Amino acid sequence: MSKRLREHVDEDHKVMSAYYDLCEKYNGRNAKSIKRQLTQLIDKDPDFLDSYLLLYEILQDEGNLPGAEKILNDAYERAMKLITDKKGKWPDVLEWGWLENRHIIRTILNKAISLWESREIDDALNLFRKLLKTNPGDNVGARDYILAIKMNMSFEEFENRFNKGGYYDTELSDWFDENYKKFPDEFGWWEKAIEKYM
User: Fold this and answer.
1) What's the pTM value of the predicted model, to 2 decimals?
2) Cα R_g (the chain), whole angstroms
């Protein structure tokens, strides 16, 4: 008898549409007003994490790195409370396919990237691996980041090589396909897991 998988699907958040309206309005010049409104959304629903992430991005753009880091850490702590059980164990499944989960996955991904940028490699890898394990379909590209770390790339080197002005093109997927088999201990389970997605 197989073990029943524990899946997390987050609840619907009423502030989501107000958040998307703010995203539409944000143009870089109106940051002060948008920051105030994001803070209001966070007060209204502290468990909707995309509000934190846009605020994090604005603070980074302004050069307020300590403020940005605090906001990201607040969001990450909330993400962990939302998905982990009383023992701190992650769910077996945390899929991107559920719109309700995306704000959580984006938060954890941002935290992992931040750790990678800070050269906290083991902690970054731990989060990337958990994201991939709970969502083998890997819409956010955790596997690419894992491979880059295994190949001793810094986040800056990764971005310089693959970021094409805010998106990654087929060069990244070709690079992944050429190199991931060098790390069977890392990706062997994943290769089997994604068969169901094909």
Assistant:
1) 0.94
2) 18
State whether the Cα torsion 19-11-103-172 is positive or negative. Answer: negative
Q: Distance between CA 139 and CA 129 in Å, rounded?
A: 14
pLDDT in tens, 163-178: 999 899 999 999 999 9
Domain segments of the chain as ranges? 11-89, 98-198
What are 39-89's pLDDT values in tens digits?
Answer: 999 999 999 999 999 999 999 999 999 999 999 999 999 999 999 999 999
| CB burial of residue 114 (10 Å; 0-12, 13-18, 19+) | buried
Residue 59 to residue 7: CA distance in whole angstroms:
33
* Nearest-angstrom CA–CA distance, 127 and 130: 5
Out of 3.20.20.480, 1.25.40.10, 3.30.1490.20, 3.40.190.120, select the CATH number for domain 11-89. Answer: 1.25.40.10
